[in-house]
Amino acid sequence: MDIWNAIKDNPQTGAHRLIAEYGNRLYAAALILVHESHAAEDLVARTIRQAMIKIRLYDEKYSFWNWLYIILLNFHRSDLRKNKAEVANSADFFENNDFSEYSTDSDLHLSNVDAELMREAVARLHVNLREVVMLRYFEDKTLAEIEQILKLPLGTVKNRLHRARISLNAILFKMFTCGDKGK
Predict the structure, then answer these.
(1) Could you give the count of Cα atoms lying within 13 Å of 65 in the half-sphere of its Cβ?
(2) Of 47, 77, 112, 142, whose Cβ has the fewest other Cβ atoms within 10 Å?
(3) Could you tell me which residue, 176 or 171, shows the higher pLDDT?
(4) Whole-model pTM?
């Protein structure tokens, strides 16, 4: 039986199954978005609660994970609107740093970077760039899927991925050369 039908038939059993099948994946995505374990746990809990409440709105012709992820992103975006300080700080990072000297063809190859270091670098990205990086490289989504999930034009998705790669190279370069391991 599909998980969404299990939730509809028996919410308690369905909730346990939802957590077992998607809890860790939701937590990993939330942790990258919010950088803090308690905030990530709260985001996941709200996502699961909302999924349980809105399960009848799920359309089976779409990916269940994508549907959950959109709920997670919507809560995260709502939190950011309520707390604009994080967005302003992220924007300041880009305004106060010149990344033009870095390119995706740099000697620093992202595929050779330690996973924990990469997560830390991704966490420093502006939220708009972080979302596309997570979907593309952590969730292995195609550009078309990202376009659908984020409801963005394909050109915007490509542009954000390009800017994210350049920014990640710059962030990682600074982390390696300056020993900048903190935020």
Answers:
(1) 14
(2) 112
(3) 171
(4) 0.65
